[in-house]
Amino acid sequence: MHLKIALLGGDGIGPEVLAQSVKCLKAIEETFNHNFELVEAPVGAIAISGTGKPLPDSTLKLCHEADAILFGAIGALEYDNNPEAKVRPEQGLLKLRKELGLFANIRPVKMFQSLIKNSPLKENIVKGTDLVIFRELTGGIYFGEKHINQDGTVASDLCEYSEKEISRIAHMAFKAAKKRKKKLTLVDKANVLESSRLWRKTVTEIGKSYPEVKFECMFIDNAAVQMMLNPSQFDVILTDNMFGDILSDQGSVIIGSVGLLPSASIGANNAMFEPFHGSYPQAKGKNIANPVASIFSTAMLLQHFGLDEEANAIVFAVHESFAKKVVTADILGSSKYGTDYVGDFISEHIVDSDENLNINDENIGLGKSTII
Known about the structure:
Elements: E1 2-10, H1 14-32, E2 35-40, H2 45-51, H3 57-65, E3 68-73, H4 77-80, H5 89-100, E4 104-110, H6 123-126, E5 130-136, E6 146-148, E7 155-157, H7 163-178, E8 183-188, H8 194-207, E9 214-219, H9 220-229, E10 236-239, H10 241-255, E11 262-266, E12 271-275, H11 292-304, H12 308-323, H13 339-348
Helix pairs in contact: 1-11, 1-13, 7-8, 9-10, 11-12, 12-13
């Protein structure tokens, strides 16, 4: 298969972890006889310094032309320390999602048995956790009209959703639930917010078309608590932009490291894959960042194009790194191996083998259950 893949390393540790994903893509290319055209482009703070824009026109053009995008991370300390900056790196990512119509963010959260001691929560709580969060990504309060009065003492952010925006991601989530454990939980705040009441009304009606899926609704405050008390009760979580952002952060706590969680952002014609973590600028250039989330995101990219065996080969290689404890310092307390070494180990253990078909129980939900 030939795929043109845009590489947007971004800021901080983004380029470092993305480089490890590239190693894996090249190993897949060689092992499975594919052809990946990899094209780099700037985004975020690095793009602002070069062009004055967090998303240059040339980068956006490349993303439109590419079959898929691999994204690193975005954000820099000079902007974190200057919250009033008019041009910010994060604007590049938000614009990219909007321009490409990437309305569905899919974030699998699975507790690996081999890393269960890495979680700050008790084993009996996190064991068996295997859920996926479907977060609406291009609507809601993050994209709504914003206003602040002249003297800066009153501000507002509009949270607005249409039935169409809700319906398209709801159908994706129900289809995913059909292929998983057949349970979907809508997380909202319908007892207070009018936008949440529209979510509940719309999703409840859509749920009637999926009678095989158990459908329930849960308020965001209760869902946040239940994620910490009994995360294994969840299968597919469907929610809006802001609530999905919050619950995804909790998912990283359950697993024990934000460096393990991948994500996919899917639209009608485009797809982007990125690690869940941020740019972590304090670690830039220190060779300590965990590349696994980026590498798992690469596996999600492959599976998006039906390359299941290739994706499994990557996941199997990552599990080999876990088994041999070839991991970065955020996992298992090891400080022996750096980003580059872990990336080398994983890419070198990508093989075309029947063994890859035997890892489904440890799969992080990268399959067709999450990418529709």
